[in-house]
Structure formats: C-alpha cells, structure tokens
Design a protein that fits this description.
Elements lengths: L12 H21 L14 H15 L14 H31 L12 H14 L1 H18 L6 H7 L1 H17 L5 H13 L2 E2 L4 E2 L4 E2 L6 E2 L4 E2 L4 E2 L4 E3 L17 E2 L4 E2 L4 E3 L4 E2 L4 E2 L4 E2 L8 E5 L2 E5 L8
Parallel strand pairs: 1-4, 2-5, 3-6, 4-7, 5-8, 6-9, 7-10, 8-11, 9-12, 10-13, 12-14
Antiparallel strand pairs: 14-15
C-alpha cells in the first residue's frame, strides 16, 4: 500500500518572527558598522532602472519603427517623436539632477553637500538640452556603424538584421550615448549605461573611450575597451579583443592619465588579441592577428601574426613597378 510522503512540519509563527527579528538586528548593525556599502539617509541617488529606461527610450528615437510596440508611420511619426522626446527629456533631466547632487553629497564631509545645491537644477537642464540637441548627429554616427556592420559581415542579410540582432551594434549604440554624457561630466549615469551594455552583450566599453565613425565589433563576446582608448574611423575588431592598460602598482595615482592604446583608422584586430599600454599605437591600416599580446607600437599597414608575445611584424608588400 502506497504511503503519502510526509511533509516537514512548518515552524511555528513565533519561531519565524524570532528569526526575522534576529536577522533585522544583525543586518542593521552591519549597516552602521561598515558604511562602504550603504546609503542610509541619502537624499539623492541615481536610479539604475530609470537610466535603463532612458537608454531604451533613446533606442526608439534613434531607430524609429524597430523597437516600438505599435506601428510608426509617416503620418504619426511627428507625434510619436514628440511623445518620446518629452518622456526622455523628463527622465534624463531628473537623473542628471540626481547624479549631480549625489556627487556633491558623496564629496562633502557630512554627506549633505548636494542637498542645498543652488545650481544643480539649472546645470541639469543645460546638460539635458545639450545632449538632446545632439541626437541628429548621434543618429548619423550610428547609421554609419550599422552600415559598417552590414558591410563587414557577409552573414548579414540586411542592415535591419544588424540593428535587431548584432551585439556589437547594441554595444556601440549604448556607448555613444554614455560617452556623450561622460563628456558632459555627468556622474555615475554613463557607467550605469556601459555596464547595462556589458550585461546585455558581453562587450565592456568604458564610457570614456573615444571611438570614431563606422566602428564594427564582430561577434563581440569578451571585448574589453578601456577608458583612455582612442579608436579611429573604420576600425573592425573581433571577439575577445582587449584594449587595456598595463597592470601597475599605483592604482588611483594613474587616474586621468593615458593608460590604454591608440588604434588608428582602418585597423583590423582579430579574435583574442591583447593590446596594452598608453604609449602603444597601432598604425593606420595595420592588421593584428588573433591571440597576440602587444605592448609596443605597430607601424601603419603592417601585419602582426603569431601567438602570445612571440609574434612577427610583416611590412606591407611593395607593388611592382609597371
């Protein structure tokens, strides 16, 4: 005869209450004893959820019709854009305002420096207006990136496919938004945006990195591009590429210095290549083979091949005289 399984008995409610009370006390005590990971009494903090909402609203403005729940037509596009702009203006102004005050609170000794900021609202309004005025130019830059993705990948059937499906296009879209806010010296929000892109695509681009026109990351997983990287126009990189800094003992001492490489125009960098150092320049038109480890400059038009730090540098072939 089959027996019903015996369920463990539920603890008495009094036991639950005692456990909760004990844990509340322990957690609150830890908040007071270590202030590094709490923001009690913080009046102003940026919102990660609202920052992501800014990105997704801008995506609909930059790529109209691709990511909307309803059809966008030539008849309704003006109204549609007006609604989206009004919404993103409100979101961005509020988050920039929060971020500016948060920074002042963080820097003040009593954590209240931003509470009475007289200029923060006006500064937030100015930053928001400046950013939004740049949207037409941002759209033009991203159109070039989409074209570069389509031109650079024979597997792409149409530019639409790169907008919908390619993590590299997604990552450069978010980066170009974050970089503009970084240039406007908005605290925290650019990093939240870049880490959103990192989580979504596996591509880690610091918002401080400067990236030229027609940029294409193929596949993308594991790409790392550091804060002071400078990338020219028409550059193509593959999965697993690191454009990073040499490890040093100084840590924060190096803040604000050029720590990452410069990649000139029309360079191709294949998968797994690691290029490090602020004095390292990859010259125009160079080709960097996969899995190489580079800490010194490569001349223009040269090809690097091999593995690890054991690689060879080949100059361009000379054209025969007619």
């Amino acid at each position: 005869m089959a027996h019903e399984p015996i369920s463990p008995s539920k603890p008495e409610a009094a036991d639950d209450a005692a456990l909760i009370q004990e844990l509340v006390g322990a957690l609150v005590e830890s908040y007071h004893s270590d202030g590094r990971t709490q923001h009690l009494d913080a009046t102003f903090l940026p919102s990660r959820a609202r920052t992501v909402e800014i990105i997704e609203t801008l995506r609909r403005l930059i790529f109209p019709g691709f990511f909307d729940d309803q059809r966008v037509t030539t008849a309704n596009v003006t109204y549609h854009v007006g609604e989206l702009l009004s919404h993103v203006h409100s979101l961005l102004y509020d988050q920039v305002r929060q971020a500016l005050r948060y920074k002042l609170n963080r820097e003040s000794g009593d954590g209240r420096g931003g509470d009475a900021c007289e200029n923060c609202d006006a500064e937030a309004a100015s930053i928001t207006a400046t950013f939004l005025r740049g949207l037409p130019e941002l759209r033009a830059e991203l159109a070039d990136d989409v074209q570069a993705a389509f031109d650079g990948d024979p597997a792409a059937s149409h530019p639409d496919e790169t907008i919908f499906c390619y993590p590299g296009v997604d990552a450069i879209f978010i980066h170009r938004v974050a970089h503009r806010l970084y240039q406007l010296e908005v605290p925290m929000l650019p990093r939240i945006m870049s880490e959103y892109a990192h989580n979504e695509t596996g591509i880690d681009i610091h918002p401080g990195a400067t990236i030229g026109r027609s940029f294409f990351i193929d596949h993308g997983t594991g790409v790392v591009i550091g804060e002071t990287v400078e990338i020219g126009d028409r550059v193509k990189i593959y999965q697993g590429v690191t454009l990073g800094a040499l490890s040093t003992k100084g840590g924060q001492v190096w803040r604000g210095r050029k720590r990452h490489p410069t990649i000139e125009d029309e360079v191709t960098i294949y998968g797994g290549a690691i290029i490090l150092g602020g004095s390292t320049t990859i010259g125009r038109g160079a080709t960097i083979g996969g899995s190489v480890f580079i800490t010194s400059s490569i001349p223009a038009e040269h090809t690097v091949s091999g593995a690890g730090s054991e690689f060879k540098v080949t100059p361009p072939k000379r054209r025969k005289q007619a």
